[in-house]
Amino acid sequence: xxxxxxFSVGAxxxxxxxxxxxxxxxxxxAQAKDTTFxxxxxxxxxxxxxxxxxxxxxxxxxxARVGADGMVVGLDANEALIAAAIARGVPPNAxxxxxxxxxxxxxxxxxxxVRAERLLQHLADPLAAVKEMHRVLAPGGSxxxxxxxxxxxxxxxxxxxxxxxxxDAFADSLADGWAGxxxxxxxxxxxxxxxxxxxxxTSLSFxxxxxxxxxxxxxxxxxxxxxxxxxxxxxxxxxxxADARGTFFYGVTVFLTVAVR
Length: 261
Ligand SMILES: C[S@@+](CC[C@H](N)C(=O)[O-])C[C@H]1O[C@@H](n2cnc3c(N)ncnc32)[C@H](O)[C@@H]1O
Hints:
Bound molecules: S-adenosylmethionine
CATH superfamily: Vaccinia Virus protein VP39
Order of helices and strands: HHEHEHEEHEHHEHHE
CATH topology: Rossmann fold
Shape: elongated
Strand order of the largest sheet: 3-2-1-4-5-7-6
Structural class: alpha/beta
């Protein structure tokens, strides 16, 4: 199967599978969404850009929040995801465009808030994108980025050496598997001064962890030649046994960073 966690441009992903993945992950994080809108001061009349908007659920939620005198643009490099976003509905104060976050076509100071949720980890040049986001923000406007730091995956239940191999392979397989810890580097590099970068841990059940992360991580380890199929199967058996005993754990550190221009 294709790797559903690989959203980098040019990855031969199956769009329908990617959309199912985005919907499932969105359900897990739905409650925190409004808090993140409030954290970056998205209010009625705000002009908002959502970079790497995927299927656009956040864009529709923001459109309702900013009201008729505000506006929101959802931007994504994947045409198939933008088509899915449009098919789900475009509010009158919203629009969707296919474009790259590294070279935005908007004039300077066009937005009051820019969002990049789980985008930077997929970019070959995240600093270029953050510089563009800084450029299109009006003075006083805010940038919010959310990224896992995939090197920080914690798994309890599998052999220690194999777990390290799999975590390394997965972190190395993404454009920037260390995206979370590098938020500050990119924000400072782009010229932001007041930066609030908060790490928190999200944990998942075995079923969710396997479907959303561990299956892709195993594939990365096998494809990179660090693990063979028999070692991978033995590791999964260990996790299943731990899950049956109630001792399985999966967690990863996520960084949520907000800065004002
Ligand atoms: C993990 S998804 C997150 C989608 C959405 N932000 C969310 O939280 O549900 C990453 C998104 O970034 C998009 N993407 C990847 N590279 C991009 C680029 N260079 N410019 C704009 N979007 C990009 C992908 O197509 C995908 O929709």
